[in-house]
Design goal:
Layout lengths: L10 E9 L2 E8 L7 E4 L3 E4 L11 E4 L4 E4 L8 H9 L4 E5 L6 H17 L2 E5 L16 E3 L5 E4 L13 H10 L2 H4 L2 H4 L12 H4 L4
Parallel strand pairs: 6-7, 7-8
Antiparallel strand pairs: 1-2, 3-4, 5-6, 8-9, 9-10
Length: 209
């Protein structure tokens, strides 16, 4: 999975391996839905909203092997987005992202495992390698997590390539063992108090599953 972006526009290119020796390139237009505006005193202050405009739709695509949902970086912090993708039949969630040296060590892997475990899906992330001379230093540590919440492939902060199998039979077995989808209490979840936080995209979360 390769990725790149520019101000107010995101064009992301995914290299999909259809079968051994047969590669298909897929280009999709994709905007980050939740913008990275944070202020950690003494650590980091960053305001993506000063240079970027948020996206207003979720992005999914199908491969010959599975259905994929895509978010960008900060989107991984929002459980509603991942849940909608899972409800729509996504087996794999992709998050290209660049967590920093403050949030990366604490949250990067934890969030990936949480999104995978909550929704019983595979989660894969692609981070830039760490460049300590850059103005914004990325944590690195690209990763793949299975629906059981286990890390099945990972790299360190250096430039590298990782591989992992997306096993849909294993995913279905996990969903049968712990049938979360059938056990959800939708009769209780639609509270009037939900989605009032200004940082959350309640305008996008009410999507039929």
């Amino acid at each position: 999975m390769g990725w790149g972006g520019s101000e107010n526009y995101g064009l992301f290119r995914f290299d999909l391996m259809r079968s051994r020796g047969n590669r298909k390139n897929l280009e999709i237009d994709l905007h980050q839905v939740h913008l990275f505006d944070i202020d950690v005193p003494g650590k980091i202050t960053f305001k993506e909203s000063e240079i970027l405009s948020p996206g207003d739709q979720f992005t999914m695509f199908k491969t010959p092997h599975c259905t994929v949902g895509v978010g960008i970086c900060y989107d991984i912090r929002f459980a509603e987005m991942a849940q909608i993708y899972a409800n729509k039949g996504c087996h794999l969630l992709l998050y290209p992202g660049a967590f920093n040296m403050t949030t990366g060590p604490k949250h990067w892997e934890l969030l990936q495992r949480g999104r995978a475990l909550d929704n019983q899906v595979y989660v894969a992330t692609a981070s830039p390698a760490r460049d300590t001379g850059a103005g914004y230093v990325a944590w690195g540590h690209s990763c793949v997590v299975d629906p059981w919440g286990e890390v099945i492939a990972a790299t360190d902060e250096k430039e590298s390539v990782i591989y992992a199998d997306i096993d849909l039979e294993k995913q279905e077995e996990m969903r049968k063992m712990i049938p979360l989808k059938q056990q959800k209490r939708h009769d209780l979840y639609h509270s009037p108090s939900m989605n009032v936080d200004k940082d959350r995209r309640g305008d996008l979360y009410q999507v039929n599953s």
